[in-house]
Amino acid sequence: MSDDTIRLVTIGRMLRRRWRLLTVVAVLGAVVGYGTSLLFPPRYTTSASVLLPGQWEERELLTQAEIATSSVVVDRAASTLGWPGVSGGELRDRVSAKAADGNIIKISGTADTPERARQLSDQVAQQFITFAARLAGDNTDPESAAGPEDLRKMVTQTNRRITDLAEAADPGRTVESVQARTELAKLRTALQEAVKKLDEADPTTNRANMVVMGPAARPTGEAAPTRTQFIVAGALLFFLIAVIGHLAAARASRRPRTAPEIAAALGSTLLGTVDVPGERGAHRPEGRGPRSRIRRLLGLDIRWDLPTPRTSGDEASRQLRYRRVCAHLRDQLPGPRRLLVVVPEGDEVARRAAGQLVAEAEGDPSPASSSRAYPMLRVVGISVSQPMVPDRGTESGALVVLSAGSRTAEELADVAEACADAGHEVVGTVVVGTVRARPARSAGPPRDAATPALTVRGHAPGGSV
């Protein structure tokens, strides 16, 4: 498990090197989103507003909103609409109500067509008003309702009695009669105002007078989630899954990244690290066929988690590293020997470095008969999935050359086991890194760095490689 912190530069590098794959994944997600939208028919939503006159508390408005979406109201609306195959239970999932400012209940209806959505909202609002008015009348206490009604009857009788007294009084002949008629008129006016205030204060009368504030508007667009939202959501979801999958795979990678870890996985000694100037396609493994073409097209043939190559020194400094590796190899061996340079197939960076090592060994300034001469090297490529190394013949030992972070510990152990099966001792490991080359300095004639022809495959008693 890699403990490296995932930084923005890592995500940016992944987007640059895997943009083709991420684009294909996003398009695939959009197609899946489009297919999902076909399973959900388009929906249209509109609202009808119902005004509740009078003074209402907030909890009372919430109660009225619950009543508007109750099964009684919705079932009556479904019965009135009479849509084939649509019951009240189905409509309850399509109807909602909420209390708005100003004692207004907004009733929303959702249907498969704009016209049906408008009809549903209007019908539910109408049934709500009817049911609320009936509910207000049915819930009135008989004893509390009898008091105001008896009072009205008494006021009516009193008005009649006042009229009779006024007619019986002497019509304006005396001062007393005029005063009596004036007092009776004031009493009648006061009684009429009292009855009017009583009617206005009656909650049953006020709260039963709910009104619909116009018909519901015809919806002009689909309700969420629309087909476009499904497509965008599918593309975004698949894109995020691909990004998270790449990051999770990088975190869980078991590939040794440092030179000591690689040498420990091979069970050998680290002879050193060398650099190879980065080239376009240097990390691309060779391969033909439809599968290889698809991998190259999607950018899967190169590692995305490899860091950007750093800038190295000049050609002379890089050649010095190769000479030091050859010197370490010479010092470690008891005498001049022939060695196999084992390179995993598909690791082009390691193959270029192995060729440079062979060139340095052949250009040894020491005499060939000297015990201090460089060993003679021959490069062989092996398959990591089924490693097979030539049996021991003229060569007696193996030098493993590979790039950092290219193989897992299990694969490296298989390579070491294949070398042991062929009778070769892994005398050392060379780890190769990619760098950005600087322009060569004019300090002297550059050493010939031509890469000789490499032995990629050969036949040996142990099998073909």
From TrEMBL:
Residue ranges of the region described as Disordered: 438-465
UniProt domain Polysaccharide chain length determinant N-terminal: residue ranges: 4-65
Main location (coarse class): membrane
Family statement: Belongs to the CpsC/CapA family.
Protein name in UniProt: Wzz/FepE/Etk N-terminal domain-containing protein
Keyword annotations of the record: Cell membrane, Membrane, Transmembrane, Transmembrane helix
Tree of life domain: Bacteria
Tagged with keyword Chaperone: no
Compartment list: Cell membrane
Residue stretches spanning the membrane: 21-40, 230-249
Matching Pfam families: Wzz
Ranges of biased composition (kind: Low complexity): 438-450
Membrane topology: Multi-pass membrane protein
